[in-house]
């Protein structure tokens, strides 16, 4: 009986203003942290193998995005662990928090997608070609964020460990995709399979699947969530 | 996905819980509670620590899922029902040290966020109470004392204008003057609006005169739900020589039997129509709600 | 009005008694408006339902009456009615207890009468 059909309740969504404000706060946090962490990473790279200016610029942008993406995941986790219980304690329905979280993701997603496209264009990639993989990565990021937030809640310390490992894996996948994309290997990789947009489509599909999984697990988790 | 049709609940029909069971893991906290809250009453919810007061209130306000049973407002299920939940405000104790989300908030943000969930939120009342309690909107919740946090929860409850409003330990951390003020404020609001309030408290005697009905929760079950006046007048403390007290208490509900030297005393809870025999040499004294609660909830409460 | 309620007696009875006292001491005059339920609730910080119960007790006894849409008023002859009622219970409430206490202290009837007479002279 309990928890059933909680997406079915009509009557609008309250409290979106809170999430909207949090979303903008988070994008600020993403960009600021990324801007601080990135030069540090860059310094390490520069101190290592001799890099030409072009590669350095590319790595810089890449790091910026990856760090931003990571922070997006963390922000989402924080908002899940902290804001959702708080809002439920104030009288929010669970369905409303789910919609709220979506709104919360929006400014960050839009901001990061814009940064991603700008990066692609700066490196000579047509904007259109970056769109599908960019969206895919963002969806995957959000889905993963939700999945991991649930995992951490369920498993406690073990979940936290999985969290770190998966974070790393996600980061590596992301940077790998980015590298391929930016260096034109996307096209080569795609051509090998006979279609030019293959990689972008695959990334988008993976993103959609992860996002769907994230949503489903979050919904399940929310319907049983206890607030103390 | 099937969309259930939900209508605006008729709040005059009351808030009803049927067969409420709550389990946390293997531990069952509430064992099948039936409770009907009528509109336009002030209820007191009392019970020892861990009796399940907060859990019960969080279930009645659909903040936590039920293990079994149902909660209905005007016949409509409350769970995930925005229309019903807009009518129920459970203003919980704030604990910023244990909640990351709360700690980061300022008083103003907290109230603004809560306001979003209650369509009849009263801004004018909110600012009047803030001024009254000398609270600033820009103060961080994490920096407030326990008493000041109680004030924030009181403001939330009052300004929500929710027809069913629950307050969990609103008196916690408040000094005696602030507590008196709170009860006056509550009565004033009640007289003006006829909202239903449920107040949980440990400082029972201070609240007794305000509570129309008293609900006593013991070990996850409702032990008493009675009109406070009637409950208090049906309980007496009798004392005297043991044989006289035993004779007087014969067949009556006896609690908290105690012996002092040759004299014994106990509390008797008279059922309707029952009377103490007039031919026993015993001393009969009235008892306060707090004493009644203590006698009923003491370990091994029922004696003789 | 007496401003303190005790825990030792039903609140509604105390409310009724206080209104009676006010009528006896002419704080409240006959045909004058009595405090409303909400006023009583506010002043004594008690539930309005309890205050109403006290007021209704006096209505039932014919001490107060309700003017529709205006409020409660003191009935003509209320003071006398209260006096009569309290006189009837005076023996049970005061004298009987006095005698009981005197008996257990060994104070004789004569001593008691003397005490009362002496007190009267002083007063």
What does this structure look like?
The complex is a heterotrimer of chains A (228), B (304) and C (123). Chain A is mostly helical and 228 residues long. Chain A has one domain (19-224). Chain A has helices spanning 16-47, 53-90, 94-122, 127-155, 157-182, 185-192, 198-224. Chain B is globular, with a radius of gyration of 22 Å. Chain B has 304 residues and is α/β, with parallel strands linked by helices. Chain B is 32% helix and 29% strand. The model of chain B has no long low-confidence stretch (mean pLDDT 92). By secondary structure, chain C is mainly alpha-helical. Chain C has 2 domains: 11-78, Arc Repressor Mutant, subunit A, CATH 1.10.10.10; 86-122, no CATH class. In chain C, 63% of the residues lie in helices and 7% in strands. Chain C contains 5 helices and 2 strands. Chain C starts with 10 loop residues before the first helix and ends with a helix. The mean pLDDT of chain C is 88. Chain A binds chain B through residues 1-3, 5-12, 14-15, 17-18, 78, 81-96, 223-228, and chain B through 1-6, 24, 58, 61-68, 70, 79-83, 85-86, 88-90, 92, 98-102, 104-105, 112-114, 116-118, 156.
User: Which percent range describes the beta-strand content of chain C?
Assistant: 5-15%
Order of helices and strands of chain C: HHHEEHH
CATH superfamily label of the largest domain in chain B = P-loop containing nucleotide triphosphate hydrolases
Oligomer: heterotrimer
CATH architecture of the largest domain in chain B: 3-Layer(aba) Sandwich
Principal-axis shape of chain C equals elongated
Strand order of the largest sheet of chain C: 1-2
Q: Sheet with the most strands of chain C?
A: 2 strands, antiparallel
Residues in helix, % of chain B: 25-40%
Q: How far apart are the termini of chain C?
A: 25 Å
Spatial extent as radius of gyration of chain B: 22 Å
Helical/strand content category of chain B: alpha/beta
**In angstroms, what separates the terminal alpha carbons of chain B?**
59 Å
| CATH fourth-tier homologous superfamily of the largest domain in chain C | Winged helix-like DNA-binding domain superfamily/Winged helix DNA-binding domain
Number of domains of chain B: 2
């Amino acid at each position: 009986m309990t928890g059933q059909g909680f997406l079915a309740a009509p009557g609008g969504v309250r409290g979106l203003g809170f999430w909207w404000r949090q979303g903008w706060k988070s994008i600020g946090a993403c960009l600021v942290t990324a801007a601080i962490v990135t030069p540090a990473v860059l310094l390490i790279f520069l101190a290592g193998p001799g890099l030409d200016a072009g590669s350095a610029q590319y790595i810089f942008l890449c790091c910026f995005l990856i760090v931003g993406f990571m922070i997006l995941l963390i922000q989402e986790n924080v908002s899940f662990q902290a804001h959702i219980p708080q809002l439920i304690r104030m009288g929010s329905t669970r369905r409303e928090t789910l919609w709220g979280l979506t709104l919360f993701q929006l400014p960050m997603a839009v901001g990061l997608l814009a940064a991603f496209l700008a990066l692609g264009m700066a490196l000579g990639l047509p904007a259109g070609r970056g769109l599908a993989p960019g969206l895919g990565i963002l969806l995957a990021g959000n889905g993963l964020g939700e999945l991991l937030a649930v995992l951490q809640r369920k498993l406690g310390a073990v979940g936290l460990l999985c969290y770190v490992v998966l974070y790393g894996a996600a980061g590596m996948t992301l940077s790998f995709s980015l590298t391929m994309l930016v260096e034109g290997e996307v096209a080569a990789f795609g051509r090998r399979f006979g279609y030019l947009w293959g990689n972008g489509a695959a990334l988008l599909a993976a993103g959609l699947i992860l996002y769907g999984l994230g949503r489903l697990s979050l919904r399940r988790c929310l319907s049983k969530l206890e607030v103390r | 996905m099937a969309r259930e049709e939900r209508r605006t609940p008729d709040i005059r029909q009351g808030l009803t819980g049927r067969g409420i069971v709550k389990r946390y893991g293997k531990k069952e906290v509430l064992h099948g509670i039936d409770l009907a809250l009528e509109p336009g009453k002030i209820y007191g919810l009392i019970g020892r620590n861990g009796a399940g007061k907060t859990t019960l209130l969080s279930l009645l306000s659909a903040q936590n899922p039920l293990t079994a049973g149902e909660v209905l407002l005007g016949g409509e299920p409350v769970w995930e029902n925005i229309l019903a939940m807009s009518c129920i405000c459970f203003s919980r104790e704030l604990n910023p040290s244990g909640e990351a989300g709360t700690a980061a908030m300022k008083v103003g943000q907290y109230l603004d966020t809560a306001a979003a969930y209650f369509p009849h939120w009263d801004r004018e009342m909110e600012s009047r109470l803030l001024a009254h309690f000398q609270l600033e909107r820009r103060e961080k919740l994490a920096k407030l004392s326990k008493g000041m946090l109680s004030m924030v929860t009181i403001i939330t409850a009052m300004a929500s204008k929710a027809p069913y409003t629950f307050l969990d330990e609103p008196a916690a951390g408040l000094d005696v003057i602030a507590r008196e003020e709170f009860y006056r404020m509550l009565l004033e609001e009640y007289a003006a609006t006829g909202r239903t309030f449920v107040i949980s408290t440990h400082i029972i005697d201070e609240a007794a005169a305000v509570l129309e009905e008293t609900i006593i929760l013991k070990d996850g079950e409702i032990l008493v739900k009675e009109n406070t006046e009637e409950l208090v007048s049906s309980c007496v403390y009798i004392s005297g020589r043991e044989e006289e007290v035993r004779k007087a208490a014969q067949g009556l509900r006896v609690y908290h039997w105690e012996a002092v030297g040759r004299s014994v005393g106990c509390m008797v809870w008279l059922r309707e129509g029952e009377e103490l025999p007039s031919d026993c040499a015993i001393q009969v004294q009235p008892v306060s709600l707090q004493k009644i609660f203590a006698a009923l909830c003491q370990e091994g409460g029922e004696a003789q | 009005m007496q401003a303190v309620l005790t825990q030792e007696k039903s609140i509604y009875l105390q409310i009724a008694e206080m209104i009676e006292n006010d009528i006896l001491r002419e704080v409240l005059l006959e045909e004058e408006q009595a405090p409303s339920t909400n006023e009583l609730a506010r002043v004594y910080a008690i539930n309005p339902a309890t205050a109403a119960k006290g007021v209704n007790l006096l209505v039932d006894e014919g001490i107060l009456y309700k003017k529709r849409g205006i409020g409660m008023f003191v009935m003509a002859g209320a003071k006398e009615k209260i006096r009569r009622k309290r006189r009837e219970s005076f023996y049970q409430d005061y004298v009987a207890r006095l005698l009981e206490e005197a008996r257990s202290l060994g104070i004789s009837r004569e001593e008691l009468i003397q005490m009362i007479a002496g007190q009267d002279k002083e007063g």
